[in-house]
Amino acid sequence: MSTTSGAASRSPLFYTVAEAARIMRVDPATVYRAIRENAFPAVRLRTRYVVPARAVEELAEQASASGEVVDVARVAAERRTAREVARLNGGASW
């Protein structure tokens, strides 16, 4: 009988800020600063932040696909603009 659950074998939905920073090879303070400046996606749970794993993966994919520098602040601004346009047009807010 196995004691490991199926959840243990799946990729995480969220990373801690320290985990995301380690993956991207930057200092956690850099990630916190980007989050506070609303330039990096995160979920705030009371006083703690978690980073969607998908956001980290998408950044890597964009950089690989384009072969260029991916500006996280620009990506975040484009997403905010798209959400605002959708909201104003009666679409989904997400």
TrEMBL record:
The lineage of its organism: Bacteria, Bacillati, Actinomycetota, Actinomycetes, Pseudonocardiales. InterPro entries: HTH_17, SinI_DNA-bd. It comes from Saccharothrix ecbatanensis. Pfam families: HTH_17 (PF12728). Residues 14-63 form the Helix-turn-helix domain. GO terms for molecular function: DNA binding. Coiled coil: none annotated. This is Excisionase family DNA binding protein.
